[in-house]
Amino acid sequence: MPEKLIIIGSGPAGLTASIYAARANLFPLVIEGFQSGGIAGGQLMTTTIIENFPGFSKGISGPKLIEEMRTQALNFGTKMISEDIEKVDLSKMPFILTSSSGQIYETYSLIIATGATAKRLDLESEKKFFGKGISACAVCDGALPIFRNKPLAVIGGGDTALEEALYLTNFGSKVYIIHRRNAFRASAFMQKKINSNNKIQVLWNKVVIEFLGDNLLRGLRLKDTITQEESTIEVSGAFEAIGHKPNTSFLNGQIKLSENGYIITQPKSTQTSVEGVFAAGDVQDPIYRQAITASASGCMAAIDAQKWLLEKGFY
């Protein structure tokens, strides 16, 4: 028998959706993921302390938050399988999902909560210090004690990079923006705000070639893209703002995406371009990308799916 609801993804969006769906007696099946698009649990699995998720006055680690959500979902009757979905057939009902092991799953409704993977610099030293001074989210991590009153760096040149640099001026003693070109891609409004902030220094035509430190990040080795000259700066934090890639490749063009690859949902809904298929979390959110907003959209997707199943007589 086909499942009433399958949820692909086990980050805060997918797990929140499963909690709501399980409490509605939909007995959802969560395909947690295994390797594709990052580890099961999403980006929170690489986050140390989360201080801005409501309900945890002393903060909580990313893996612990995911563990608590997962346990809560299981307690309400959610089924979970640790696999990657390799392809889907959304052309007929029930929908057909094929895993990387060749397992076939059928479902009457689907919530896609596969998230978006932060683009990171391909350096061995980056891997060493990620989570130990290197982050892909200033709003998530910028207020942590290890970054307060310390020199910080943002890598990138778009609106997100400039927004993160401005945000970090609330905590760091100085903020460098490291950009590989001699001009920003960001909006004129954002550039004006950067230029008027005396805590920010832009390092033009520079790329990071090595992250330096001992147990924690202590500095960056830079290379000038024009002269090839190398230099170092001391920083206690580096925030990579070079973009995100939504995890949608397995959809193979069957759902309408934005030009950046994010799933497009209908206004005031999580409904996608395919009836019975819903999207939640960072896979459809290029703006906020927070655990709390992902959870909120997971709640919405579960409610939307429940209403749709009821209308179609599957529930």
Provide key terms for this protein:
315 residues, alpha/beta, FAD/NAD(P)-binding domain, 2 domains, seven-stranded mixed sheet, five-stranded parallel sheet, 7 helices, 19 strands, 27% strand, elongated
Order of helices and strands: EHEEEHEEEEEHEHEHEHEEEEEEEH
What best-fitting shape do the alpha-carbon axes yield? elongated
Tell me how many strands there are. Answer: 19
> What do we call the CATH topology of the largest domain?
FAD/NAD(P)-binding domain
Average pLDDT, rounded to a whole number, is: 94
CATH superfamily of the largest domain: FAD/NAD(P)-binding domain
Main beta sheet strand tally, sense and closure: 7 strands, mixed
* First-residue to last-residue Cα separation: 14 Å
- The helix content, as a percent range, equals 10-25%
Secondary-structure class: alpha/beta
CATH class of the largest domain: Alpha Beta
Number of H/I helices: 7
Strand content: 25-35%
Low-confidence stretches: none
Architecture per CATH nomenclature, i.e. the level-2 architecture of the largest domain: 3-Layer(bba) Sandwich
Rg, rounded, reads: 21 Å
Please indicate the count of domains: 2
Write up this protein.
This protein has 315 residues and is an alpha/beta fold. It has two domains: 184 residues, 3-Layer(bba) Sandwich (FAD/NAD(P)-binding domain); 121 residues, FAD/NAD(P)-binding domain. Helix content is 24%, strand content 27%. Helix 1 runs parallel beside helix 2, helix 1 packs parallel to helix 7 and helix 5 runs parallel beside helix 6. It is elongated and about 65 Å long.
